[in-house]
Design a protein that fits this description.
The protein is mostly helical. The protein has ten helices and three strands. A three-stranded antiparallel sheet has the order 1-2-3, with helices on one face.
Length: 266
Amino acid sequence: MQEAKHALEQFQSFTGDVALYEVDALTIHGFAEHIGKDKSKKTIQKKVGYVRRMFDHGVRKGWLATNVFFGIKLDPKLGKETKSFIPLTQEELEALFKQAMGPHLRCLLSILITTGMRLDEGALLDWEDVKYDKSQDVLYFDRVGAKVKNRGSLRKVPVHPALTWAKTGRTGAMFPEFPRDRDGKTQGPASKELMRLVRNVTDHDRKVVHSLRGNFKDMLRDAGVPKEVNDFITGHGSGDVAGKYGEGPSLRVRKEAVEQLSFPYL
């Protein structure tokens, strides 16, 4: 919602608050070029998309006869290509965890490398999210009711035995050191702290905190873990509440997959 609000505010600022019917194709292309000076193609498409949806709403409400965005094709040369992230090498991972750092930073990095969680997922964990399934004998992080990127991310992730400090029975934010914004997110502060540590071991612009997610997925692949299990653990699958049929691989199966991985640097 905040992303949409910001995009509409940018559009309003660019156009000078004109009437909706005064917006034409030239306005749209001008706006795309304006925001595209230092943004990726994906970001430009997203921002223009939010404005397009506002005009769709205007048509449904009878404020406009047609949506001027219909048929608009943005300049394919506009914006920067999105760069995919590269996993860290084993040597870089060892150097990363060998650094002196606060306990909360070490704990968060340990969660990221042993679960494949996105940064904001890990940083927003509460102690109440650590749960134990007695029937399957699995300690896990419960992300089913969390604020996540998509429904596939609503899942249960086994706690690796290396995280000996992760236990049930505590309450409150697991990482209160990272202030949360008005949307309840904390990715900015957490990223700033962890990126400093990552940059101490590599200056490659495509190696970032999110690279640990790639490391985890690669480790599961190398261990021979089936893709469906891999995707359910990392939130690339249909999720524990979004599957059309069944709930996906059991917690026991996910636990067995995760426990095949070793993290000696932890």
